[in-house]
Write the structure tokens for this entry.
Amino acid sequence: MSLSASEMSGREQTVKLALKLDRLGLNRGTSGNCSVRTERGFFITPSGVSVEDLALDEIVEMDLYGETLSDGKPSSEWRFHKDIYAEKRNVNAIVHVHSSCATALSCFRKDIPAFHYMIAVAGGDSIKCAPYALFGTQLLSDNAVLALEKRKACLLSNHGMIATGPCAADALALAIEVESLCEQYLMALQVGEPILLTKNEMREVAQQFKGYGNWKNGETI
């Protein structure tokens, strides 16, 4: 398979992102998926291939109409990758993980409230939890896109988490931060219901975040 320089770069980014997700324990085996935007659409990890066996030519390229532009079978979750890219022009990378704490909280089918100011890194005063739908379906994609309205990350009920970013590094960093927040929230719930920050307090946080590190390019409340 002969690859152009841009194709090689996009495929390498996607493989490196998948490897990092596995190395950090956010995904394991064949769980989860990730993608990187291209000029024609996006590169996405393939269906049912273990990360340790993932080769560059197994990464699948798709367009924003849902057509494959290369050999291979894309992840079963390609629909929400396609729809998020179509909906959000500032998103250039998407991470979907079955990380332990985010998945555990997703089973309650509830949003994560503003128990900590860092909730704002996901773009709002809560992290939304999309209603349950069967994996790989258009309904799941529709639910995810709604949960990501004015947000950069969300939970998927009884499933896991989606994190987005203007580049692969930012999408990964957000996934790590959201998983950490999920762990902290689970710990807080062991004591009782935490005291939440008010909407005004979270608006102040959002203002501070406009010029803060990797989060300054994100959507605000």
Summary: Residues 5-215 form a domain with the L-fuculose-1-phosphate Aldolase fold (CATH 3.40.225.10). Helices lie at 5-23, 78-87, 100-106, 138-147, 168-189, 199-209. The beta strands are 33-37, 41-44, 60-63, 93-97, 129-130, 153-156, 160-165.
